[in-house]
Amino acid sequence: MSAPVNEALIRDVVAEVLGRLGKLAPLPAGAPETAQPAAPAPAPAAPARAAASGGRRFGVFQDAHEACEAAAAAFLQLREKGVAARRKVVEIIKTLADANAVEWGRIELEETKIGRLDHKIEKLKIIKLVPGVEWLHPDGLSGDHGITLEEYTPFGVIGAITPSTHSIPTLSGNVVNMVAAGNAAVFNAHPAASRCAALAVRVYNEAIFRETGIENLITIIEQPTLESFKALCTNEHVRILCVTGGPGVVKAAMQSGKRAICAGPGNPPVLVDDTCDLDRAAQCVIKGAAYDNNLLCIGEKEVFVLHHIADKFMDAMARHGAVRLSSPQVERLAKEAFTFQPGHGAGCPEPVLNKQVVGKDATYLAKLAGANVPDKTELLFAETDASHPFVLEEQMTPFIPVVRVKDVQEGIVLAKTAERNYRHTSIIHSRNVEHMTAMARALDTTLFIKNGPCMAGLGLGGEGYLSYSIATPTGEGITNPKTFTRVRRCVMVDNLRIY
Ligand code: NAD
Fold first, then answer.
1. 486 vs 347: CA distance, rounded Å
2. DSSP 58
3. In 10 A of CB 247, how many CB atoms?
4. In whole angstroms, what is the distance from residue 450 CA to residue 448 CA?
5. Given the CA of residue 161, which atom of ligand 1 is nearest to it?
6. CA 375 – ligand 1 centroid, Å
7. Residue 216 in contact with residue 74, Cβ under 8 Å?
8. Measured in angstroms, how far is the CA atom of residue 247 from the centroid of ligand 1?
């Protein structure tokens, strides 16, 4: 009988020979041929790259089921290598996200054409703020009947869907959380932001393989489609889904038959009352709403301000660099930003956001509005009424409508309507604790920020930690490693309790 073929050994030998032929530096056994980001484009197709990498895919797959199989095998390898390997992977992701932030930020912006380069870079640099393995502590119980340990253990393979608004950041943050908890992950990125995601997955896997020997711990479908999403949803290895996106994907995930952790849409309202520091409020609104051209799901999207301080507030906005549009200019912009389709019920036209304006610069929007603004303008604003589509639709643009309200009560009612029961994020600028409490109770949002910009809710200038997936409709909140665990109880009966 012939001896069994050791495929892994053969692959390693082939990789080493190919490396030496290519006059590369000598490789450690089993190491990939590069650890640096591949050239952004054009990339060779996955099978060609795999052949050139000694058969290794480094997480990039054409077929969803193959991606799931590979992640399932990687999960077993991670389990074998223990918590030290999880720690190492988390360190790799944080280090590479930081080291590649400038390059990857540029590549993501070039591919998606939405948002701002400075913030695309920053969103990668701050991946280090996402909690890792240190977040997980078992719970112990001890009594007359012995001792019990409750541990936070992995599911196995997690299917993850990421948005176009922050493709590599969401992927990276999800990987930190999911791997810290001991899982492997399969990603279906947004088709308009999938090349940059695949690039990051490849670079992460190269380093993970080099440092831990684990292959394909994070996999991705190179050309994501609705079919590949459905394949993830039906694959037996995928134990849970984590989706980050708008209403369509949340609905699809909830109907998939798998448990889904859904980080859904938001339309965060801001209430400004007459007890607050108006300059601070204006600066906070500008900082949050201008960030990455208002692509953040937590970003300030509309302001309700008490009528007798509304002019002062808008003056403060202008003083701090936002540019005010006139009513005709807003209407011109609205015609470009929305398509009005025949509506349901009473027949009112329904506004549908025109994707061409999403995440574009304020200067671009100003041109559409017919306004001349300085080149450095980060945010536009204008007074509108409460039923304007700019108030009621989640419009991810650096334009923020300001609505006058007669009192705090009316402001809260209108803010609740604008928030659309997403229960995502709301913000108040006030020194009155009763106003804060009333708004918190009425809107019941996952994040409620007082006297700060939206990002204070994610540990950036406020206490807390960072995540790019805030699970709103399904209630897990700001996701962290514990979100991606199953609780298992281990019971010792009548023993080991010494006193
Ligand atoms: P999107 O809903 O268009 O896409 C999100 C992801 O879902 C993409 O991967 C897309 O391919 C996929 N998708 C969309 N419809 C689908 C369907 N019917 N079936 C299967 N997959 C589908 O959103 P986007 O424009 O990429 O991102 C912006 C949206 O995401 C906003 O609504 C924003 O509020 C939300 N978001 C939420 C969070 C959060 O943490 N809650 C974070 C980021 C973005």
1. 48
2. T
3. 14
4. 7
5. 9
6. 31
7. yes
8. 7
pLDDT given for residue 33 in this prediction: 35
Closest ligand 1 atom to residue 224 Cα is: 11
Q: What does pLDDT average to in each consecutive run of 10 residues of the chain (499 residues)?
A: 43 44 35 37 60 85 98 98 98 98 98 98 98 98 96 98 98 98 98 98 98 98 98 98 98 97 98 98 98 98 98 98 98 95 73 94 98 98 98 97 98 98 98 98 98 97 97 98 98 93
| 154 CA → ligand 1 middle, Å | 25
129 secondary structure, DSSP code: G
3-state secondary structure of 270: strand
CB 494 within 8 A of CB 146: yes
265 CA closest ligand 1 atom index: 34
Report CA(246)–ligand 1 centroid distance (Å).
Answer: 4
> What does the pLDDT read at residue 53?
74
**CB burial readout 100-137, b (16+ within 10 A) else e:** bbeebbebbbebbebbbeebbbbbbbbbbbbbbbebbe
State in Å: Cα 264 to ligand 1 middle.
7
Task: Kindly report the protein residue whose alpha carbon is nearest to atom 34 of ligand 1.
Answer: 265
* Cα–Cα distances in angstroms (integers) from residue 143 to residues 140, 336, 442, in the given order: 10, 67, 42
Give the residues surrounding ligand 1 with Cβ less than 6 Å away: 161-165, 189-191, 226, 229, 244-246, 248-249, 252, 263-266, 297, 394, 468-470, 472
Which runs of consecutive H residues, i.e. helices, occur in 255-306?
Answer: 278-290
User: From ligand 1's centre to the CA of 249, what distance in Å?
Assistant: 6
CA 21 to chain centroid: 41
Would the pTM count as exceeding 0.85? yes
Q: Which of 114, 249, 262 to mutate to test the pocket of ligand 1 (most atoms within 8 A of CB)?
A: 249
Q: Where are the alpha helices (DSSP H) in 64-143?
A: 64-99, 101-112, 117-125
* Residue 350: per-residue pLDDT: 82
Cα–chain center distance at 61: 22
How far apart, in whole angstroms, are the C-alpha atoms of residue 175 and residue 30? 23
Q: Which atom from ligand 1 is nearest to the alpha carbon of 230?
A: 20
Return the SS3 of 140. strand
